[in-house]
Amino acid sequence: MRVAAKISLSEQEQKLLKRLSSSNKSSVRIARRSKIILLAADGKTNLEIAEALNIERGQVSRWRVRYVAEGFRGIEKDLPRGGRNKQINATEIVRLTTQTKPDNATHWSTRSMAEAAGISATSVRRIWKAHGLKPHLEKTFKVSRDPKFVEKLEDIVGLYLTPPEHALVLCCDEKSQVQALDRTQPGLPLKKGRAATMTHDYKRHGTTTLFAALNVLTGNIIGQCQQKHTHAEWLKFLKQIDRETPKDKSLHLICDNYATHKHPKVKEWLEKHPRFHVHFTPTSASWMNMVERFFRDLTTQRLRRGVFKSVPELVEAIEEYIEKHNEKPKPFIWTAKANDILEKVVRANCRLSSKKNGALH
Fold it and tell me: Which residue from 14, 146, 163, 302 puts its CA 20 to 30 A from 326's CA?
């Protein structure tokens, strides 16, 4: 028969345990354990103590043994729970995320990384957030290789930051192949707790091309929709710009390198109209043309969710949007300096060159 270990208390230990067992400031656990030890010191058996305190006999036995072995330290705190705490190496998780790929995917997910690293998906998510990592996202880019990049960059940014006197700076471009899309089924409107709906499939009713010129100073738009976007349509748009701008102002047009803008007939017309000065953006640098910002607003605010049953209906919607825009125009402010842009392009080219050389070796 197993006999419970005997406990003998010093006067100091007895005072401490009595104080903890009756104190309102000590925790319930410490007070109960102190009572167990005091009753055990009085010669009570584990069963008697369990019945007196209305607890299990195994609990009495456990705290009696710990007190005999370690004294008050044995009952002051719980023992560590089973299992080993896994040490998470955040640096290694970052390295795996940025320098490796899964066997069957192009990028890591929280679950696939958790499985590979042997940790929880929550831990992976926390590490990624702390280091600003978003493997599920990818941004597109295009670095210009134009040999005259610096010259064109300084020219265009100069027009934005210090426009010439007695002149208008107009950002011109075409938004081609704008589709008149009609949905196959009517969508449901926005309501509380539910987003508006739209079918993924659609019917095509033709396209139009929007020619637009953004006045950098005022934000006004000169627009014209045409069926095609050849040099003939571009010339027609240039003539509209000529009609709708003050005759005493020089016009500086910022355009991309589309062949239509450099057609011989266009050059011939420009020679006869010396107040027109054309400035071309570097190749693969359409982001320098601020009219692209207007095209983005037009797409997101009017076209993307629009339903158009015909091209004339689409053209009417575009013209109405431009008209409303011109009632309260707001110019886009260019803030980037040419040197800052050039530094970024140089860094990007250096990184691309180093990666290319690394791939070759």
Answer: 163
